Amino acid sequence: MEVTFLGTGAGMPSKLRNVSSIALDLRAINRSIWLFDCGEGTQHQILKTTIKPGRIEKIFITHLHGDHIYGLLGLLSSRSFQDGHSPVEIYGPAGLQTFIETSFKISHTHLQYPLDFFTVNDNDVYIFDGLKVRVKKLTHGIDSFGYQVIENDQLGELQVDKLKSRGISPGPMYQTIKSQHVTTLENGETVKREDVIGPDKPGRIVTILGDTKQPTQFVDFVKNSDLLIAEATFASDLPSLAEQFFHSTITETTQLARLANVKQLCLTHISQRYTAKDQLDLEQEAKAQFTNTQIAIDLLTLNVVKP
Amino acid sequence: MEVTFLGTGAGMPSKLRNVSSIALDLRAINRSIWLFDCGEGTQHQILKTTIKPGRIEKIFITHLHGDHIYGLLGLLSSRSFQDGHSPVEIYGPAGLQTFIETSFKISHTHLQYPLDFFTVNDNDVYIFDGLKVRVKKLTHGIDSFGYQVIENDQLGELQVDKLKSRGISPGPMYQTIKSQHVTTLENGETVKREDVIGPDKPGRIVTILGDTKQPTQFVDFVKNSDLLIAEATFASDLPSLAEQFFHSTITETTQLARLANVKQLCLTHISQRYTAKDQLDLEQEAKAQFTNTQIAIDLLTLNVVKP
Ligand SMILES: [Zn+2]
Ligand SMILES: [Zn+2]
């Protein structure tokens, strides 16, 4: 489970940061890749990664501002030009279907695969292969949503002492016992997995919030995330700009992370007023407020691990 | 009068070539810049040039395929975020207004400047400050157009021998005489410009064709262009692919240039099947058929001069 930031800038692209998109690599869990937001140039950024557009199976859109959706048209078209035949599901606020279908009609674009649209609402929960996704409505002037990806709980560890006390020595048989409910040994005895395995390990939780102001409203939703990705459009000294434009400051988002007992925080959707020279200052400012924090940059990849 | 290729690839972006867009720099003539087509990522390419989006006053769209229009939404939005307050005129096939207005409505985009739409038709002529534009319908399966930019004729050269024979010595007075119809000299005599100036010099002609098959149909339209920019999606060995997909080969387009007495040819809209290693081969192939030819690459700038 890896996150790659395809675009980390707010509003419009700069040489330093493209507009918003995040890839969640689930190839180890269910062979797919999901996107969160898809600003213009997302397909160009993907060319710089190992992601094959044909592997992208779901796209979650946080809100309909142009810097979060204008890349959908080209990405979906190019996916069709290339190897893409499997369906794509698009989740987001109402309006996406009209945007895409109107644009494709006018541009005479005919995809080689089906598109399915899902209009999300506050507190929705979607169950998928190996994961579920929770939806939370944020505060951004227009409908904006956060998505929380929760990996299914994982099997616990084999209790080696119990196995050994039954005379089963370490070896390939351990993997077999772990992989099925009941295993018959060579001597005819049966081993029930539930008797020799520890408690389930909770799955990883990744929360990706769309644009919002006053993020500390969402402590309950974010609680115990292993990775929180959230906007911090402005540095801590510009709370009134953040309030005015329905955005967050570094202070506000690190406070959310602290209150919600987040393990790792990555801030994105950085105002284009900040240049490459400001990156270090922003990161120092954020880390002083919440230690395990990064300011995302384009093409940064984070591996999501349970602490 | 300069042309900058912002994207030179067909269908979808690659690392080598972005999708179609061409900037025509008319700052020396009327302080404006015009775009021809605007594929996704055009605004990103503009970041690598000296072009200010606020200077872009007219956008001509050859046809509505996605790789020629999907960059309009972001470019127009960012122009508004930045300094753009002057109106933008958009010329192209019917459908552009619906595409842009639907997308802007859904994304809650409100420009700070007016957009004016003009639906073009075969043989239209538009008269602008210092230039006119002729329109030609091409053959591409869907409506596709070529645009010919014709600079107004320029004043001829002052006839120095005539001026001298009237006792007027070279100096700043020559510029004054050229700049107005009648000049009164210090001695009270008057000089009519028409008596001391040579014949008008014809303005420059730049023809930009959209996607088309069988380009030699358009010899009359292209005739005597100082610069012809036209597609050659495929090399000369793939005429049946070109025919099938309503595109041109290098052979077909160089033949158009020859028949139309073009001074300079630049081929663009190159299939993404051709890699950086193929660039030299393609250019050699083209030059063997029409000497003054280039295969465009992204960010190539050509200065348009009268031979
Ligand atoms: Zn945004
Ligand atoms: Zn094309």
TrEMBL record, chains A, B:
InterPro entries: Metallo-B-lactamas, RibonucZ/Hydroxyglut_hydro, RNase_Z/BN. One of its GO terms (molecular function) is 3'-tRNA processing endoribonuclease activity. It comes from the Bacteria. Zn(2+) 1 binds at residues 63, 65, 140, 211. Zn(2+) 2 binds at residues 67-68, 211, 269. Keywords: Endonuclease, Hydrolase, Metal-binding, Nuclease, tRNA processing, Zinc. Binds 2 Zn(2+) ions. It is an enzyme of class 3 (hydrolase). Residues 18-201 form the Metallo-beta-lactamase domain. Its cofactor is Zn(2+). The active site is at residue 67. It catalyses: Endonucleolytic cleavage of RNA, removing extra 3' nucleotides from tRNA precursor, generating 3' termini of tRNAs. A 3'-hydroxy group is left at the tRNA terminus and a 5'-phosphoryl group is left at the trailer molecule. Its EC number is 3.1.26.11. Belongs to the RNase Z family. Homodimer. PANTHER family: ZINC PHOSPHODIESTERASE ELAC PROTEIN 1. Zinc phosphodiesterase, which displays some tRNA 3'-processing endonuclease activity. Probably involved in tRNA maturation, by removing a 3'-trailer from precursor tRNA. This is Ribonuclease Z. It comes from Streptohalobacillus salinus. The gene is rnz.
